[in-house]
Amino acid sequence: MSRRGPLKSAVPSNIVSPVRRCSRTACGRSAVATLTYVYADSTAVLGPLATYAEPHCYDLCAEHSERLTAPRGWEVVRLTDPSAPTRPSGDDLEALANAVREAARPPERPGGPGGPGGNGPRGTDQAEGGRRGHLRVLRSPDS
Questions:
Q1: What is the enclosing helix (H) or strand (E) of 131?
Q2: What DSSP assignment string belongs to 51-105?
Q3: How does pLDDT run along the chain (143 residues), one tens digit per residue?
Q4: Which of 14, 53, 87, 111 is most buried, by CB atoms within 10 Å?
Q5: Global pTM value
Q6: Dist CA 98 CA 92 (whole Å)
């Protein structure tokens, strides 16, 4: 009885890639989402990339998953990955702008302007057009 080691291919293959690719024809980008059709409900479900490649699912790259449309009469359900980073919303950007405005505002002196410790009324409004480091502070139109 002879003992053989694992089979080795005589010809190395560059066809099989460990990275899953987009299922769309002629697209070589990495897959980021998995598309599954639920025929009974006329629904196309697009979710995060599945752990394993399934035979009746389609892996899509970011561009093709964003442009996905379903046949007429079908519904597209897009599931989000809770661990994926989210894009900042308008509220996030407004909160960031308010924090920058607050950080750029000069500290109040004890006693306020004109009081003890103050240098009299301020000649210019420091919050509008003032510079602090590399940031410029602009007053919002509604304030």
A1: strand 131-132
A2: SS--TTEEEE-HHHHHT----TT-EEEE---TTSPPPP-HHHHHHHHHHHHHHHS
A3: 555 555 554 555 455 556 889 999 999 899 999 999 999 999 999 999 988 888 889 999 999 999 999 889 999 999 986 666 666 667 777 888 888 788 777 777 666 555 555 444 444 444 445 555 566 667 777 65
A4: 53
A5: 0.48
A6: 10
Whole-angstrom Cα Rg for the chain: 30
Q: How far apart are the first and last CA of the chain?
A: 89
Per-residue tokens: 95? 């909160």
User: Tokens 């990275």 belong to which residue?
Assistant: 19
24 with 60: CB under 8 angstroms?
yes
Q: Which amino acid is at 6?
A: P
Structure tokens at 125: 């409004």
Beta bridge partners of 45: 36, 77
